[in-house]
Amino acid sequence: MVRQGARWKIGTGFNIPIIIEPWIRSGSSISSIGDVMLALQPCSVGYLIDQEEKVWNESLVHQLFPVETTQNILNTPLYHQVQMDRLIWKAEKNGNYSVRSAYRICIEEVINNDHLRKPGYWSGIWRLKVPPKVKSLVWRICRDCFPTRVKLRSRGVNCSSECVRCEDPHEDSYHILFHCPLAVDIWQSANMWHLISPSLSQFDNAPDIIFNLLQIFNLLQRLSAAQIEHIVTIMWSIWKARNLKLWQQVSDSTITILERARHLLEGWREANRKQVSIRQDNSSSTPSSSHHNRDANISWKKPTSGKYKCNVDASFPNTTNKVGIGMCIRDSDGNHVRSKTMWFSQTCSIHIGEALGLYHAIRWIHELQFTNVDFEVDSKRVADYFNNGRGDVTEFGSIMESSIYFLNNHLTNSHVEFIRRQANEVAHNLVKAATSSTSFQVFDDIPTCIIDLIFNEMI
Ligand SMILES: [Zn+2]
Hints:
Blueprint: E1 6-9, H1 34-40, E2 49-50, E3 55-56, H2 58-64, H3 67-74, E4 86-89, H4 99-110, H5 122-126, H6 132-142, H7 149-154, H8 173-179, H9 181-189, H10 193-202, H11 206-220, H12 225-248, H13 254-283, H14 291-296, E5 308-315, E6 322-330, E7 336-345, H15 350-367, E8 373-377, H16 380-388, H17 395-410, E9 415-418, H18 425-436, E10 441-443, H19 451-458
Helix pairs in contact: 2-3, 6-12, 8-9, 9-13, 10-11, 12-13, 15-17
Bound molecules: zinc ion.
């Protein structure tokens, strides 16, 4: 309760007591249970860390903790760039306390609203990139406040419980979405039944099936974003068809239902794309981000005469807990000078991976004693923080501050710039190779995975 809303960022770990404090991945803690835990009471997290290498002392952690806790500890990332232990605020991206987020946490966590709470993978719903009305429908189904006939009857509404479309005697959300022959026909026509049916054999209610699909998408990545977005939008369209039948006696065909979903989703995506480009237009205050140049930076540009360019990218393969980093230096004729790939065994967020990529590229350029190097990254957050950001107290901020400090002190005439993904393909292709290799590699000759790109971009 004391630490509600906060978590530790681990520097040395010597200021963080092992017991009770929220220092494990995403801010969980070890409560004091059992003799071993009692004995650990006076100890700090620092004793569990190999300070030289800045990694967990795995054998010690294995000895001291039960299996699950051990896994959680070992999955808690440690970074060389974080030097001081610090309590940071979980609810804000930059780790700083704010009244707004504190209020949110109060509502969500402190006030006892267990009776309102339902276990489930709620964040999976909010992360969906679908129209708000689709999201809200999915949320209502999962909250079990979806006005099916069975639900209405349970609330005392005097109505039939028969399915509006097939006369099955039990019209609940499971039936409408997954059991009704008309729904099954829709999923089959959309060629999605094989994606959904494995969840149906595990769960017998709509919320669990939806949470399971979201988990398969987000955590296991066995569904693509396009598939999961399509699936939930079709659910919306099925519900719409059910209401049209009930209130207007209209019977939509399977094709109509699928087309309505496709239209809604595509229309919304298109409108969103336009909004994003309008926002970018409005926020372009510098001449370099004018129309002309924005189109131009879709392709890679050679550095100006006498300069070098280092393209950097990070990647996160689905199957392993690794971050791969790729970097490639080219001269003003577009010639390949040198490339490097690295990987780290660590689960971390995308922007931390990108920040680590830039950090290691800057260190590498310094080792090679180059000056006059411009770095290009395709993470806007990293480039923006590097050039304008301050005050992020999370691990991301620590890594970025280390990069800024290092570049300012050791590299002259170097900058960090944001480029589009399409212009960063060399680094992107390299990094794919990084994650499949077992250690870091330096290439003096052009690695085969980028030969074509290098030559194309020379022209
Ligand atoms: Zn039915």
